[in-house]
Amino acid sequence: MTQMALVIDLNVCVGCHACVTSCKEWNTSGEAGSLADHRPYDADPSGTFFNRVQTFEAGEFPLADTIHFPKSCLHCEDPPCVPVCPTGASYKRKEDGLVLVDYDRCIGCKYCSWACPYGAREIDEERKEMTKCTLCADRIYNEALPERDRKPACVLACPTSARLFGDIHDPESVVSKAIRERGGYQLMPEWGTRPSNHYLPRQKVTSCGSGACSCKTSDGDEAASVETQAERGELHLASIATRV
């Protein structure tokens, strides 16, 4: 069975929030919108987002590190949010494994958000409906778009190509190869939800002497060039434009 998912490379995420803003823009103007914002320019703003980036410090000086951790719905293979929904509004789609919400059935009871161990669902306070990441289901199958653009908005917007998209059940897909070759892991697997989205663990990087270059990993492997990444389908046009 097909299971579409994201693989997020924590080595190259810079916390720019391009994924957050592009997600908000696309979904507000798409099938999910409009997503509420309250007091967006005040001291205490709040709003509905499908994707957020959490930033925190790890370690102690002089070995401290800043980690940017993007998080959205993980499209679990055994999603606990689905069976608790009293109206059947939350469901897992068979053809691609996406976990979605039928807004016409949602009554805003929040049972699904309480059941989700990842805090990935947000109630839209304006519409009183539960919202979440759809992996841009209204975009990835849109034949009116060029094939290269039939990816989630967050994937296309990422300037460092930290986000990969594909079928994790296809052993030859970009995401499956990344998980297999780089030790991709699931978030909180102990919950037994089998989240589809995976993360690529951070690697220790050594410099080339100048302090500005990091072309070798701790294993001594040469970092892939822009051209190599483009050939693999790991680099997107928007990213190339920012690198060359």
From TrEMBL:
The domain of life for this entry's organism is Bacteria
UniProt entry tagged with the keyword Iron: yes
Enumerate the GO terms in the molecular function aspect: 4 iron, 4 sulfur cluster binding; metal ion binding
**Keyword set for this entry?**
4Fe-4S, Iron, Iron-sulfur, Metal-binding
4Fe-4S ferredoxin-type domain boundaries: 4-34, 63-95, 97-126
Q: Name one Pfam family in it.
A: Fer4_11
Entry-linked CDD domains: PsrB (cd10551)
- Keyword 4Fe-4S present in the record's keywords: the answer is yes
| InterPro entries hit by this protein | 4Fe4S_Fe-S-bd, 4Fe4S_Fe_S_CS, ET_IronSulfur_Cluster-Binding
**Alphabetized PANTHER family for the sequence:** PROTEIN NRFC, PROTEIN NRFC HOMOLOG
**UniProt protein name:** Protein NrfC homolog
This chain's source organism reads Paraburkholderia piptadeniae
